[in-house]
Design brief:
alpha/beta, Rossmann fold, 17% strand
């Protein structure tokens, strides 16, 4: 996409950065990011990636906007209640930046459709809130060799991990399989401070931009945790497990799997 006068002005603060410049901005405009989940994490991530000029954003979400969502899902408004989240998100993104092409997928990501959906994208951002989806997305990224930025939140804490298939630890290297149903409370049971979604979702968007630009040190092999009550960020070193069932030396998982389980949140936080 050509950097005409309007785009030079819109992205001027990016272009001033030696790490971005005009070539980097054109690279962003040509990039494609798949955001799975248009909720608490997907909302800030989608808005910042759109503002940054990422040329194509795919948004996967089967839900409609509910009143309880508005405490943290900032891409939606009261007027969107009852509307499909992907359509609500598409409207806000188009209003923010007409340079961005939005592709909507108003249904659940499954083992049957995931590979086809992800095929056209450069990077995956996980904005989901349940174990079945997170394990499916991790396996999808590894098997498709697509970079993935994972995020999760609960109560006052959150975490981010960037996964580079073939290079770094994946989600299953840390958490081998979904925990038993009911072992971890859901956000609806335990609650979540709304702004935590903004903190974690924005870090996820930052990681995506760094991947697309090829700049900076990524959160690969580092699980970044955030505790809002103590205002503490803590990176935890992790490493690829040779025994990992999907990215290990002798993987036992070679096809995508749909797990059936009640909605939970991220383990380990």
């Amino acid at each position: 996409m050509e950097l005409n006068e309007e785009r030079i002005e819109r992205y001027s603060r990016h272009i001033l950065l030696p790490e971005v410049g005009g070539k980097g901005q054109q690279r962003l405009l040509a990039s494609r990011v798949l955001i799975i989940g248009a909720g608490g994490l997907g909302s800030p991530a989608a808005l910042y990636l759109a503002a940054a000029g990422v040329g194509t954003l795919g948004i996967v979400d089967m839900d409609v906007v509910d009143l309880s969502n508005l405490q943290r899902q900032i891409i939606h408004t009261t007027g969107d209640l009852g509307h499909a989240k992907v359509l609500s998100a598409e409207e806000k993104i188009r209003d923010l930046n007409p340079d961005v092409t939005v592709r909507t997928y108003p249904y659940a990501l499954t083992a049957a459709n995931a590979r086809e959906i992800v095929a056209d994208y450069d990077v995956i951002l996980d904005g989901t809130d349940n174990f079945p989806a997170k394990f499916l997305i991790n396996d999808l990224a590894v098997l498709s060799k697509k970079p993935l930025v994972h995020g999760g939140i609960l109560r006052f804490v959150g975490q981010v991990l960037t996964i580079l298939p073939g290079e770094s630890a994946c989600y299953r290297c840390l958490f081998r399989e979904p925990p038993p149903a009911g072992a971890v409370p859901t956000c609806s049971e335990a609650g979540v401070l709304g702004v935590i979604a903004g903190v974690i979702g924005t870090i996820q968007a930052t990681e995506v931009l760094k991947i697309l630009l090829g700049k900076g040190d990524l959160l690969s092999n580092r699980l970044l945790t955030y505790d809002a009550l103590t205002t503490t960020f803590r990176p935890v070193s992790v490493r690829r497990s040779p025994k990992c069932p999907v990215c290990g030396d002798h993987p036992s998982i070679t096809e995508l799997i749909d797990y059936e389980q009640p909605v939970c949140t991220t383990p380990g936080i």
